Amino acid sequence: MIKFNQVSKSYNDRQALKNVSFQVQKGEFFGLLGPNGAGKTTTLNILSTLIRPDHGEVLIDGLSLGENLKDIKHRIGIVPQEIALYEELSAFENLMFWGSLYDMPKAQIKTKALEVLEMVGLLDRRGDLIKTFSGGMKRRINIASALLHAPKVLLLDEPTAGVDPQSRNHIFELLENLNQAGITVIYTTHYMEEVERLCDTIGIIDSGQIAAQGSLEELRRVSEAKDIIVLNTEEVTKTSFDELSNHTAFVLEEDATKLTIECENIGNEISGLINHINNAKITIKSIETHQADLESIFLKLTGKQLRD
Amino acid sequence: MIRIFKKDLVLFLKDKQGAILSFVLPIVLISLFSLAFGGIRGNSSSSITLLIHDADSTSTSSSIVNALDAMEGLNLIRSTAENANEEIKKGNDAAALILHSGVEQAKSNGEPLPLELIYDEARQMEVGIIQSILSTQIAWAIMPDNIEPAPSLFHMQMTSVVGEEKTTNAGLIQAVAGTAILMLLFNVAGLGVSILEEKESGTLNRILSSPLNPRTILMGKMASTFFLAIIQLTVMFVFSWLVFGLDITANLPALIIMIVATAFAVSSFGIFLAAISKTRQQARGLSTLIILIMSATGGSMIPIFMMPEIMKKIAVVSVNYWGIQGFFDIFWRNLSLLEIMPKILILLGIGLLISIISMRLFSKNVMKLA
To answer: Smallest Cα–Cα separation from B317: which of B360, B346, B276?
Structure first.
């Protein structure tokens, strides 16, 4: 559906994208994850036809960005990071305006506007001015505005910025429904939990380069990020720890009351590890488990924290 | 208190553009108004132009012409009576002195000299100064030093060739036309700034990602600005008609075309402002500067005829000048549509030129996300 092949883009002396390549299949929910300034918005602006790459090839639905601009514009819907709406117009008036940019008959725009208003749960507020809406409601209309012309690809640039948890969930459900209806979604964010929940495939971008791409499981494998088990114990004696060390790679913290170990899969390994602990006569007070998440994957792949 | 003082000072200086404007704008305006009122150093009184036609061509009439010609501060231009009449009607000159035949004979007979001052009633200040100069200078030019001239001898016939039958006074036209264009400039500047607002709010990007051609987007913006400018000018003139009795019906076709041409030139300025500015703050600062300069030089704040020659030459670069002069042609000078056409074409030309430049700059500066 989308092919981004060896794309580079520079702003004056700063190279925003360096030979970036990735592919998104039809109907996929693709998350582009990276810290601020990593190149997410530049990637999305290229896909949105707002800027042209310096080098490389971009195909959307089999059409080249350089040759089929107008056709591509009909196939994509963009949800910018900003609330790109007219505050002094009502939700319905905003949607009627945005729909009018896509060569659709007025009656069709009206039908679609009511349809998307219902979809985002704001049909009863259609006559209210945008300036009277909460941040979350504005975000929902921001998304609705991109759906009027029934795009095949939805491009979202951090669509939940500054949104309360309830509205965020509403947006997630909406996007999941759209994706299930067959829309290909490209989603940029620096919130890992959003990517983990929503995306089939994840591209990790850092300093204008794709560090890795794949499903969460594939990224775990590639990055070699491990799950972590932490055991809070009674004081571990040297004899007990020596006994334990014959069978496991547990690390004893300095105060001798905490044991940690990295493992491939907590579920598969935890019972065996606890047996070794019992055999070494160590008393466990509590157990903490930490699955390898995107934060640790990102750290492994880029050597930096995602929210630096 | 000192901390707040220091903080405010730092904030003021951090906004470099605002800080510069705070000092530059008053200096620019003081300079312009000083120039306009003729108060430049070493040239405290600007010269006044007077057309003169000597139909008598005798030694007496020649001595009057020579005496006036020798006067500092009076720019005497020889002309025919018809040409003088035409120039005053067109608003190019304020007054002309006609020395009819029989000046020498009237002097010999001790009768009043056949002198006539034809003038534009709208330019009473200039005409008053000319009258005062003439009444003394002519007398001293033709009478021997030791003889006191009889005042009745130099009584001039005063003939207003423009505005003599007017119910509307020139001050009203100046006030309405000058203010209307000044306010219109502020309004279209606001509309121009709205493009930058759209850029900052993200709506421009959303429009640009739609199938609309970027040029179409700009033309749509220009069309809405142009349309609103026409409505605003129309409302201002209708208001002046209803409340102040400005006769807008006398030459309605010319007025409509003049409104359209002025609105086009002024609205192009709004788009130009948006095209050269990168942020709303920058556009606001620039608009204040440019509008005040154009209005001060173009006659919105001070009538053109009160300005010295150099300022009258500078004034032609201002949209205000052509607009105000065009409305004077309609309401005061009663010129036909054909006679007003050059001013209309100039306004349309200014509008077209600025629009083309704005389109290029807009594509380069505003629509470029990089």
So the answer is: B346
